[in-house]
């Protein structure tokens, strides 16, 4: 059941994306990059969640910033 719903969603998104790209006069040759960009954004979001929830620190320019339980940087 779930596999059918997921497949239906993916097919619907592919058709809608193809049509919207055509309406925007975009080159449809690059439409295959859309799933790759979605995977990259998901990777970025998972890394952010990992830093905020598990590690409780953010590293930027070789400086470590500790984070409290609300996601705020501690001074």
Features:
mainly alpha, 2 domains, 60% helix, 11% strand
Explain this structure.
With 75 residues, the chain is mainly alpha-helical. The chain folds into 2 domains: 31 residues; 35 residues, no CATH class. It is built from 2 helices and 2 strands; from the N terminus they run H-H-E-E. The radius of gyration is 19 Å and the shape is elongated. It starts with a helix and ends in a 9-residue tail after the last strand. The model has no long low-confidence stretch (mean pLDDT 84).
Spell out the helices and strands N to C.
Answer: HHEE
Main sheet overview = 2 strands, antiparallel
3D shape? elongated
Please give the number of β-strands.
2
**What is the total domain count?**
2
Radius of gyration: 19 Å
Strand content: 5-15%
Count of alpha/pi helices: 2
Structural class: mainly alpha
Strand order of the largest sheet: 1-2
First CA to last CA: what distance?
A: 50 Å
Q: What's the helical proportion of residues?
A: 55-70%
Q: List the uncertain runs.
A: none
- Mean pLDDT comes to 84
């Amino acid at each position: 059941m779930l596999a059918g719903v997921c497949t239906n969603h993916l097919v619907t998104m592919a058709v809608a994306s193809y049509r919207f790209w055509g309406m925007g006069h975009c080159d449809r040759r690059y439409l295959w990059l859309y799933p790759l960009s979605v995977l990259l954004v998901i990777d970025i979001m998972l890394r952010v969640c990992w830093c905020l929830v598990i590690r409780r620190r953010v590293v930027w320019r070789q400086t470590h910033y500790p984070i409290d339980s609300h996601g705020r940087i501690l001074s």
